[in-house]
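Hey,
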Amino acid sequence: MTISKLIRRSNAFFAVTIVLLLTFIGSCKEPLPPRNDPSDILQGTIEGLYALTASENTLKVILTIRNTYDETLQDTAYILGSFRIILARDSSYHKSITIADTNLIEGTYNRNTGVLTMDPNTIIRLRYTWNFIDDYGRDLRRNIFQYQPDPNCADRKIALKEFFFLQSSVRVYRKTTTVAPPATLYPLCHVDVYVDPRSCPPIRTDIPCE
């Protein structure tokens, strides 16, 4: 084989190699599929719980936040937000409270390091306990609730039903967005005093009042 033929074959092989490399490089520049942004993957719900015991007569507001991301979140907590309780028929009666890590009642949280860990599909819960005194120092037990005798117990009275809007917004980490679930309308029939169930039929507070 002559030298000229070898050169032509070498040039052809080199050209084919260049084309294949360019094709491969071009395919590597294809855009990657979008990655879910982990900034807004926390979802929350808010609920109320009326606590009536021998030592407590309060309304608890509970915010539950779930990690809907498919990876574990672990970082220094940045728990900052608010709870707000508003009387439905007169919004001038309201209570606002700032949320901090002291409101955290459930979750994997290291209070020494401040690191909060949320595995996929796990939750944290924050709670505020209200004593029915509003932001202006007014006691709804004196100013709002309208008590009627309890036909089942002469020792206590039950207020007519009132509705409260329960609202909350909170940020958990610096790199996540604020969690602000839809407001909940909570019905409450306040009971003036706790009576030992040995003396009167107990009142269930885990179901809506009548």
